[in-house]
Specification:
Distance between the termini: 50 Å
Number of strands: 0
Number of helices: 3
Length: 63
């Protein structure tokens, strides 16, 4: 791993890629967090129960 880090340190202008990657990650994290917090309680209940619902009968499977 030391070879890779030494190689990357010698490339001029490589720091901009670190900054761009961090900005993309932070932006996506904030967008996903905001979208999750803005969802209604009914929609969250629907998502939570969706895995338990049998598509044929629309009943919640308990066993």
């Amino acid at each position: 791993m030391k070879i890779v880090s030494n190689l990357l340190e010698n490339i001029e202008g490589i720091q901009i890629y670190y900054i761009i990657g961090l900005l993309i990650f932070f932006t996506l994290f904030v967008v996903i967090f905001i979208r999750t917090m803005r969802r209604s309680d009914n929609e969250m209940e629907e998502i939570k129960n969706s895995i338990l619902i049998d598509n044929d009968s629309e009943e919640i499977i308990t066993s």
